[in-house]
Amino acid sequence: MVFARRDRGRALPDRQSDHRHGADLRLARRSAGALSTMSETTLVTLAERWRLLWNGDLALGREIIADDFVAHAAPMTGSGDDLIRGRTALEAWISGIHELLDELAFTYELGPITQGNLMAVRWRARGCYRGGFPGSPPEAIGRAVTFTGTDSLRTEDGCIVEYWGNADSLLFVQQLGVQTMPGY
């Protein structure tokens, strides 16, 4: 799918010959054509299994996460590596989040939106804080928290191979009452 450019709210024709945007359009067409297409039904099923994985069903990782999986996500503490490599590292990351939040549940608010071998979802997470987040005050323990985010996923051969995560970390730490972020 190539999105049409807009000029003052009106859609412009998608023309490669437009000297201002031609290279961008050619690149988008070439990238879209190079995608290995999975059926939308398969992607929707994979997105649901991704949600279940995040809800704590870590055994699904062996079925839906590729061996060479890479995640790009800013750490909630604002410091540390933003790359997570491999299924085991992803499962450890998810487990760590569940250690912070009791009864953690993710629901989809939008999507999955699919194109070729790509999909995106908008989610909301709810849980009860158990403690352990750096800089959180003791009175935050037991507090209900809600935060949102967007996941962009790339798939190959029925597995998720790459993930870009964007979570509203600020909302999360505000609900905990964190005054100073570690590392700052």
From TrEMBL:
According to the lineage, what is the superkingdom?
Bacteria
Q: Where is the signal peptide?
A: none
A Pfam family assignment: SnoaL
Region of interest: Disordered: 1-22
What GO biological process terms does the UniProt entry carry, in alphabetical order? polyketide metabolic process
What name goes with this protein?
Ester cyclase
Q: Which organism is it from?
A: Methylobacterium currus
